[in-house]
Specification:
single chain, about 230 residues, 8 helices
Length: about 230
């Protein structure tokens, strides 16, 4: 009798734990959905789409992309975790990790192409570009403007090359699983740009120092004018 009561008690505890885990999962899913929906709505608001139904469709497309990418990266992380737990040697783990990353990259590439196709069915090329900028915190334009302001003597060809690399960086950054990863992609291409400009004869450290000095002088003049 006592054993039976203990079993019933254990089963009831297990049921409660499972229910609590289920509730926690549901809460996390709901919170995540709110986050990516709000993020998508903010991007779409910047497009000023007069058709409310069309705007909702675009929000759904962007939200689904965030969710699909998150699913792919979550699966990757789980597989990598298992590999590290079961690896018999560093070499075998390295090979398995590369295989998982290759599969992940292919999945992300397919999602990227499908996402842009869906966006293009609803938006103009200019608005698709705005969505890309919205998903990457407008880092492309901020970075490009900074280079042009920092080095006023840049030629058209040099500006075009800088823009081309930043556009390429943005394509990768769109698919980044976090803010840090998105910025990492731009950082990688900024290194390429700096190497290119150095090869073109620019002293990047000097240009940056001169730029900081010019910015300081402009700020001082502005403050002086505001006082008077």
């Amino acid at each position: 009798m006592r054993i039976g009561l203990l079993i019933c008690f254990a089963l009831s505890i297990s049921t409660i734990v499972v229910a609590q885990d289920g509730n926690n999962t549901s809460d996390k899913e709901a919170a995540y959905t709110r986050t990516i929906t709000t993020r998508s709505e903010k991007i779409v608001q910047g497009l000023h789409i007069p058709d409310s139904l069309k705007a909702k469709r675009v929000v759904t497309i962007i939200t689904d992309q965030y969710r699909n990418l998150n699913t792919v990266y979550a699966e990757r992380d789980e597989q990598l975790k298992l590999i590290k737990q079961r690896a018999e040697s560093k070499d075998s783990a390295t090979n398995d990790i590369k295989a998982v990353q290759d599969i992940t990259d292919k999945k992300v590439a397919r999602l990227h192409a499908s996402f842009l196709k869906q966006l293009s069915s609803e938006l103009s090329p200019a608005d698709v570009t705005k969505v890309k900028d919205g998903m990457t915190y407008n880092v492309l334009n901020v970075t490009y403007d900074a280079y042009v302001d920092m080095i006023p003597t840049l030629t058209k060809n040099q500006k075009d090359q800088i823009m081309a690399w930043l556009v390429e960086a943005r394509e990768y950054a769109m698919d980044g699983e976090s803010s840090e990863k998105k910025h990492w992609w731009f950082g990688k291409y900024k290194g390429r740009i700096n190497n290119y400009l150095s090869a073109q004869g620019y002293d990047i450290n000097k240009e940056r120092k001169d730029w900081a000095e010019r910015s300081k002088q402009k700020s001082e003049v502005k403050n002086t004018n505001e006082v008077h």
